[in-house]
Design brief:
Chain lengths: ~300, ~300
C-alpha cells in the first residue's frame, strides 16, 4: 500500500459512464474528465490497459475507483461492507487489483432482512458531502437517478439507506411500455410535473399509470403533459415512500435539473430541499479515503 | 342490420390472441377455437379475408367481434361509449364494417377528468356475467390480466371502472429490467407469493422492487422465490389500490391460476373472492348484444 505522491486519480466508474478527477490529498479538484467508457464498455481482460490509458491522459498516479468497477461485471468484485459506514471502514476494505497502485472502493450493504439494500459508488458522495461540510453530520440525503438512494446519516456515518427504482422505471415505461408513445418529451419542472406529484398522493401507482395512458387515448392531455405528469407521479411516489417527517431538511446530491424536480416533490411532501454539489462531494469523499490509507 | 339465422359467431379479438365462439342467440356455446391471430397478426387490408377464413372454418354466419379489433390498430375504430353501459347501449353503437354481416362492439370509456379510463372487450364479459347469473347485478368485478380491470356494477350496468397495468408491469420487469435475472420462474400460489402480497401493504412499490433485487444480490432469496414475491407485490399493490371495504365480495373473471393468485391477494385485503367462468360470461354477453339487435 505504498503511495508516493500527494496527488492521485479518483474515478466514479458507473455502468454506462465514468468521471475521472485529478485530486490533491486535500480534495482539491485539479482536473476532471467525463466519458462513456462505463463498465459495460470495458472487456474483462482490458482493465489494466484501460487504466494505463487513463494514466497516460491524466498523470502516472495512484488510482482510486468507486462504483460498478467493483461489481461482478467490473474489474474485480469488492465485497460490500455493512452499515454503519465511515471513510475509515471503506479504506480498510479497499481491494487492490494493482498492489499499491490501483484501489477499488467497496460498496455498502444493508442486510436488514426486512429491507435488504445495496449501493456502489454513492457511498463516496454521501460521506464526502459530510466531510466537505456541504451537509450536517446527521440528516437525510437523497441521490436521485436510475436507482435513487435515500441515506440517513448519523454522526457522519451512513446509518441506513433505501433505494427506489424510479429512474429505471421511467426508462422502462418510456422505452418498452404501451405508454411509450406518450413519454417522448423531455421533462421540465412546472405545473404538469406538479400535477403528477399530486397524483402520487393517491397511492395508486399501477392504476394511475394506466390512467395516464387512457388520458392520452381520450385526448385529455398532450404527450408533453403526460411525460411531465408520469415523471411527477414516479418521483412523487419515490419521495412519499420515504415517509420523512414534515419540515425535514433533505439534502439532494444531483445535477440542477433532476435536483429541481426532486426539490419540487420534496416540498410537496412537506420537506425542505437543499441542492448540494455532488461532484465536490465525491472529490471530498475520495480524498478522505485516500488520507485514511496514509495515516 | 338484417340477420337471418339463430346462430352467429362471436369473437373476443385481442392484441395477440383471439377466441371465436359458435353461439346460439341464447348464449349456448356450440363450438370454440382459440389461436394467435390477434390484431397485430392481421394487416390493415386483410380483414375481409381473415373474417372469410373464419366463416369457412366455423360457419357462414353473422360475426360479432369485440376487443382490439375495434381500435385504431384493428379493422375499424369503434368509438368508446361512456359509462354507465348496458348491452342495449353497446348494441346501439355497433360498427358494421360489413353491413348486416359483421359487427364490432364498441369499447367503454370513463371520462371522469380525475380518473380517465378505457376498455375494449372486457365490457362484454362484465355484462355477460350478470346476464348469465354468474354475478349479482350490483357489486365489484375483477378481470386480472395485462391490464387488470376493476368494475363496479350497478343494476346490471357498468357504473365505473379502473385499470391497473399490473400484468404489463410484471412483463416489463421480467423482460427489460435489472430484476430480469431473478424473474425467470413461473409464479404459483404459496408462501412466497403471500410474502410479496404482505410487502405490498408497506405501500413502497418502487423501493420494494429494488429491495427484491438487492435481496437477490445478497443471497437472501432464490430466483424462484423472487419471481413469486414480485408477482405478489404487484398483485397485492393492484388489489390495495382499489380500496374496497372489508368483507366485500369480489367476483374474479379469470383462468384458474391467475384467479387463484388474485384470490389470495383479495383475501389478504379483507375481501371475499369468487372465481367466475369468463368464457361463459363472454358468450352470454355477446348473445345479449345479439338479441338486443333483434328486438
Amino acid at each position: 500500500m505504498v503511495v508516493d505522491s500527494e496527488r492521485f486519480l479518483a474515478i466514479d466508474w458507473g455502468t454506462t459512464n465514468r468521471r475521472a478527477y485529478l485530486l490533491t490529498g486535500d480534495g482539491e479538484v485539479l482536473e476532471t474528465c467525463r466519458d462513456d467508457r462505463g463498465v459495460l464498455a470495458v472487456a474483462k481482460d482490458e482493465w489494466p490497459a484501460e487504466i494505463a490509458l487513463l494514466r497516460a491522459r491524466m498523470g502516472d498516479l495512484p488510482v482510486f475507483a468507486a462504483g460498478m468497477i467493483g461489481s461482478t461485471r467490473g474489474w474485480c468484485n469488492a465485497p460490500y461492507v455493512d452499515c454503519p459506514v465511515d471513510p475509515a471502514l471503506l479504506a480498510q476494505h479497499l481491494v487492490w487489483p494493482e498492489a499499491g497502485r490501483t484501489a477499488i472502493v467497496p460498496g455498502v450493504a444493508n442486510r436488514d432482512a426486512g429491507a435488504p439494500d445495496v449501493m456502489r459508488g454513492e457511498e463516496v458522495q454521501l460521506l464526502g458531502a459530510v466531510i466537505a461540510g456541504l451537509v450536517p453530520r446527521d440528516g437525510l440525503l437523497c441521490q436521485p437517478g436510475t436507482h435513487s438512494k435515500w441515506a440517513w446519516m448519523n454522526d457522519g456515518r451512513i446509518a441506513s439507506f433505501r433505494t427506489a427504482m424510479t429512474g429505471e422505471m421511467f426508462a422502462l415505461l418510456r422505452t418498452h411500455s404501451l405508454l411509450a408513445d406518450y413519454l417522448d418529451e423531455d421533462v421540465v419542472p412546472g405545473d404538469e410535473f406538479r400535477a403528477g406529484v399530486a397524483l402520487a398522493g393517491q397511492h395508486r401507482l399501477l392504476t394511475t399509470l394506466f390512467g395516464e395512458r387512457a388520458g392520452g387515448v381520450l385526448g385529455c392531455h398532450s404527450p408533453a403533459a403526460i411525460s411531465a405528469r408520469v415523471s411527477g407521479l414516479l418521483i412523487g411516489s419515490d419521495v412519499n415512500e420515504q415517509e420523512f417527517a414534515q419540515g425535514t431538511t433533505v439534502h439532494i446530491l444531483a445535477d440542477p435539473m433532476l435536483g429541481a424536480l426532486y426539490g419540487d416533490a420534496i416540498r410537496a411532501a412537506g420537506g425542505v430541499p437543499v441542492i448540494v454539489d455532488s461532484h465536490r462531494a465525491f472529490a471530498a469523499g475520495m480524498a478522505s479515503i485516500w488520507r485514511a490509507c496514509h495515516e
